[in-house]
């Protein structure tokens, strides 16, 4: 139980970092959520919560990074359409 509390405290301390880009924030958020979910999930099924936290953090970080790429692509498409409408030109797909 002490290990879970230590991991949670470390995760919260890291999550408080400022001056982070959107990519860094989303990746760290995914890792934090994944670590917590992995630790709880493995503890429920009588596994080792440390390994659950490590695996959950890895999957969560990857998911956060992929989500960030999706949001950036979505913003690029929106901006492309907005600029095309502003300049009275047909919309073009971003490269």
Secondary-structure element series: HHH
- Unreliable segments of 5+ consecutive residues: none
Query: In percent terms, what proportion of residues is strand?
Result: under 5%
Shape summary? elongated
Helical content stands at over 70%
- Sheet with most strands: none
- What's the number of helices? 3
- Which class do the helix and strand fractions yield? mainly alpha
How many strands?
Answer: 0
What Rg, in angstroms, do the CA atoms define? Answer: 19 Å
- Give the distance, in angstroms, between the N- and C-terminal Cα atoms: 50 Å
Instruction: Determine the mean pLDDT.
Output: 85
Structure description:
- The chain has 95 residues and is mostly helical.
- Helices cover 79% and strands 0% of the residues.
- The model has no long low-confidence stretch (mean pLDDT 85).
């Amino acid at each position: 139980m002490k290990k879970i509390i230590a991991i949670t405290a470390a995760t919260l301390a890291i999550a408080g970092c400022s001056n982070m880009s959107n990519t860094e924030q989303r990746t760290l958020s995914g890792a934090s959520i994944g670590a917590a979910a992995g630790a709880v999930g493995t503890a429920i099924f009588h596994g080792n919560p440390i390994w659950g936290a490590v695996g959950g953090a890895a999957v969560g970080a990857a998911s956060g990074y992929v989500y960030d790429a999706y949001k950036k692509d979505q913003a690029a498409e929106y901006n492309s359409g907005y600029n095309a409408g502003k300049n009275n030109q047909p919309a073009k797909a971003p490269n």
